[in-house]
Structure formats: C-alpha cells, structure tokens
Amino acid sequence: MKINHRVPSAAVLALVLMYNVSASEQTNPAAIYLWPDRTSRPGEQELPVNQKNVRRITDVSSPSMTVYPAPGTHQAAPAVMVCPGGGYGVLAINLEGTEIAEWLNSIGFTAVVLKYTVPKNRDGALQDAQRAMGLIRLHSQEWNIDPARLGVMGFSAGGHLSARLSTTCETRSYPPVDEADRLSCRPDFTMLIYPAYLGDETYKLSEEIVVTTNTPPAFVVQTQDDRTFINGSIAYYLALKKQNIPAEIHLFPSGGHGYGLRPSDKPVSHWPELAAQWLRNNH
User: In this structure, what is the dihedral angle of CA atoms 152, 11, 15, 261, given to the nearest 10 degrees?
Assistant: First the structure.
C-alpha cells in the first residue's frame, strides 16, 4: 500500500490549474448515443452552476458518450472512459468529466466522457458503461484508439460505477443489441478517484462488487477525512491484493470529497501527477 503525504509543488499546481479550462470550452465534439432506441427521449436538464463552479446535469434518459481524441498522434492512442460522479442523481460534467478529458489529452490519452443514466438508476448506469466499452472497441480503428489499452476512470459515484464495471465484465447485464455487445466490456485498467459506495465501516465490500482474478489492475486515490467512503476504497485495494492483482493506492490525510483535479493547498492535489506516472509506467 502506497501512502503519500507529499505537498504538491508549485509547478504541479500550475499544471493542474491549466486543466480547469474544460475540453468543451475548446471544442464541441458530438455526443454519440449508446442505445439505438433511446435517441429521441427527452433531453437532460442542466442545473444552475453551484458555488464551486460545478456544472451538473440530470434526467439523462438518452445516455451518450463524447470522444476527445489524443492530439498530435498518428498511432492508435490509449484511451480512458471517464465516469463523472454525482451520487447517481446528477453528473458533475465539467469537474469530473470535461476537465478530466482535457487532462488526459495533455498526457497523450484519448478521453471518452460517459453520460450515464441518472437519476437513481444504478443498474441502468452499469448497462450504459458496459455498452459504451463495447462501442469504443467496435469503433477503435475509426477513433484511433488502441482497444487493448482502454481503461475506465471514475469519481465518487462514477468510481463505484467504474469498480462495478471492472468486476462484472464477464457477462453483459442486458440482452445483446448488436455486434458491439459481442466485444469485451472489460477495462484494461481502472482508476478510482475518491470512489463512493464500495464498502462499509467494517471494510466489507458492497455485495455488487466482487473482485476476481479477472478484475483489472487499479489506481486508487482517497483521503482520510472522506470518512464515509475511505473504508470502501481500502477494502477494494485489499480485495485486489488478495487476488494478486497489481494495485496502487494513495491515501492522504485531508482533502475531503469532490475536488476533481482542481488545485488546493491540500496534498491530495498532487494526485494527477501520480496518476500520470502510473499510466506511463503501466499503460
């Protein structure tokens, strides 16, 4: 278990600050609907931007994904599907979506931001995530993505969704729709940033999270003062360790929950550099 208490350098903070300009402000890529029979349902609702400058959307009944290609490469790039959080009620679409896509692009990764079904439909969200992974692999050549280096990254509830996807990838949770559903929905790696709902206060994993020898390697970030969710993160790491699955966890003393990659005076602001190094070393 890697426990990191380092304070981020000024250079790192400056670098992270750059990523607060969301990808959607620089480009306007088209959304790709996941389900052929759900493209004409009522559109999602955007809530007022809150005091932390977080854009939140809800009522997503036509789930979609948006591809942000890695810039300046003619070779197939590794890719990450990004799952924003929001308690399965909303999606923090800039803080944990487009800003993350911008950061991934800056380190040479294609990003695919997932708008999964909300509110309050965890099983529907899992179906969206499984379907999206198959679609990305189906279109990998067209989108210049390496289908063997395709991971998932989730924040808060999106972290729970990412862990659930990573531990339920042997079979689809819905009847196949087309050829995309015949391709693997297993992520090649998993990144969980302050994930929620993974376990309880006794360090027991939630029933829907079952780690096996087929579960992908993982990178986990959590803070000690995120008291509701820290035990679940540790439980997930220990379950990976028990199965001899490579895993890296970074625990910080403070930082709370829901910080994305926006800079602060907390040591946890250092996590993007740690994540980038892990990706370079392993993927």
Answer: 50
Residue 172, pLDDT > 80, answer yes
The CATH class that applies to domain 2-282 reads alpha beta
CA dist 143 and 136 (Å) reads: 8
pLDDT of residue 39: 86
Alpha-carbon gap, residue 217 to 199, rounded angstroms: 19
Length of the chain: 283
This prediction has a pTM of 0.90
CA atoms within 13 A on the CB side of 208: 13
The tens digit of pLDDT for each residue in 51-105 reads: 999 999 999 999 999 999 999 867 899 999 999 999 999 999 999 999 999 999 9
Q: Residue 233 and residue 197: Cα distance in Å, rounded?
A: 9
Looking only at the bridges linking them, the beta strands covering 2-3 and 45-47 are: unpaired
Residue 20 identity:
N
- pLDDT tens readout for residues 110-123: 999 999 999 999 99
Domain residue ranges of the chain, discontinuous segments joined by +: 2-282
